[in-house]
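Structure request: Ectoine/hydroxyectoine ABC transporter substrate-binding protein EhuB, Streptomyces justiciae.
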Amino acid sequence: MAALGALGAAGCSRVATASTTDGGDLLDRMKAAGVVRLGIAGEIPFGYIDKNGELTGEAPELAKAIFKRLGVDRVQPVPTEFGSLIPGLNSQQFDVVAAGMYVNPERCEQVIFADPDYQMLDSFIVRKGNPKGLHDYQDVVEKKAKFATGTGYAEIQYAVDAGYKESDILIVPDQVAGLNAVEAGRADVFAGTALTTREVVKKSSKAEATKAFAPLVDGKPHVDGGAFAFRPTETRLRDAFNVELRKLKKSGELFRILRPFGFTEAEMTDLTAKELCGG
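Returned structure:
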């Protein structure tokens, strides 16, 4: 926590206002400075500070690989809460969101996304044996389960769409707090990504993760994709990032970068930001 606080204090200086000329000049300025500021949310395995005070996670490690190819050798983390990532990006607190953020139409109105570097289904944290038989959001509503999820998570809307009252949702900071809520009986279920839920319950004697499932959006199963986010003016940087991302996908290097963080081949994807933005 001390390391996180120190990095947060060090990383809060504001960057210069982005140019809107020819899709922005941020990439040129980052090359000149030799550093890119990454907004992270302290969420394992997406982007976090490890026990040695080092920046890691699937998004930061991918950022290191891609930005080095773009001529930017150093990454600097700027830790914040997940719900503050988009406001922080657009208020110039950092250059790019590197937090495995899901691409959805609401967020696409505020930022521009690279193409997803992974795809993901949802899963629940429940008590051992899943005593209430909770396997999807419809089960949560029908069985009047006490439902929890994380700050700013897409799972909030999935539960609401299934008929759960938003004001009744227990909002917690992250999956660790969600696990604690389930173990303590303050919630019957915590919803998160299949990856985060299966990782966080590994050492729990009281809770387990359910089988991954696709939430329903407009009555149809929906697969999410996580990606890097950029300010709307920085199309040139986003496009350059996408070029290198496609090369890493084609070579298999992307999977090699993500695999140590619990990702499987099933979570590699050819989804595009355009598809997930809804147009």
